[in-house]
Structures are given as C-alpha cells and as structure tokens.
Amino acid sequence: MTLADRTVLLTGATGGLGAEMARALTAQGASLVLTGRRADALEAIAAETGGRPVLADLAEPGAAEALVREAGRVDVLIANAALPAVRAVPAARAFLPVRAASRRSARLRG
Q1: Is there a domain that residue 80 lies in?
Q2: What is the per-residue pLDDT across 48-98, written as a single tens digit (0 to 9) for each?
Q3: Are 68 and 98 in contact (CB under 8 A)?
Q4: Which helix (H) or strand (E) holds 34?
Q5: Residue 34 located in a structural domain
C-alpha cells in the first residue's frame, strides 16, 4: 500500500508515538492532518512534517465531529489519541473520531 497522494488524519500527534508515526507517514509520501491537545508540540511536529495542525481535545463533547469537518477529505484515519487519565471519559467516547469519520465517508461515497 502506498501513501503517496493520500491524506492521513493522525490523532494524538503530539505524543511520542504520534510524532514518530507522523515522521514515518511523511517519509512514505502521505499528506497529514495532525491533531493533539498541546499547541506547542502540535505546531512543532506540523512544521517538521509539513502536516496541517488542528488543535483538538477529543475528550470534549463535539470535538470529534468538529475535527472531521475541519479535516475535510481523509483517506486514512489513525486514531492514536489517548484518553486523559485525569478525568473520567466514557469508553464509548474514545471511538467518536472513528464513528464520525465513518459516517462522513459513507455520505461521500453515497
């Protein structure tokens, strides 16, 4: 599978694993939409990889849907965002980005 000419939405891009995935995806030719909660780290990895940064806290209500709208057309979703340990988040909310992206993709395929 080639990622050239593909857009990848990578959540959790500001963490160590997310940043490494962003670098690897860029090396494979992907165009990136990067998300994370820490603006400074997000801007840094976006500058390094040429990705488009979208500041988002996916634990917040409505954030996943807003991210899907902001991201636009996406070919690959990597749901790498971790749930914050400092507050309780229902487990079902962990999958909101995937569900929102799936719904949007289905509408586009129509």
Answers
A1: yes
A2: 999 999 999 888 888 888 998 999 999 999 988 875 555 555 555 555 555
A3: no
A4: strand 31-36
A5: yes
Contacts of 22 (CB under 8 A, 6+ apart): 10, 13, 32, 34, 45, 48, 49, 51
11 contacts 80 by C-beta, under 8 angstroms: yes
Q: What is the domain-level CATH number for residue 97?
A: 3.40.50.720
What pTM was estimated for this model as a whole?
0.76
Q: Specify if 27 maps to a domain.
A: yes
The answer to the question of residue 1 being in a domain is: no
**Which run of H or E residues covers position 16?**
helix 16-27
The predicted pLDDT at position 81 comes to 83
Q: Are 39 and 24 in contact (CB under 8 A)?
A: no
Higher confidence at residue 94 or residue 103?
Answer: 103
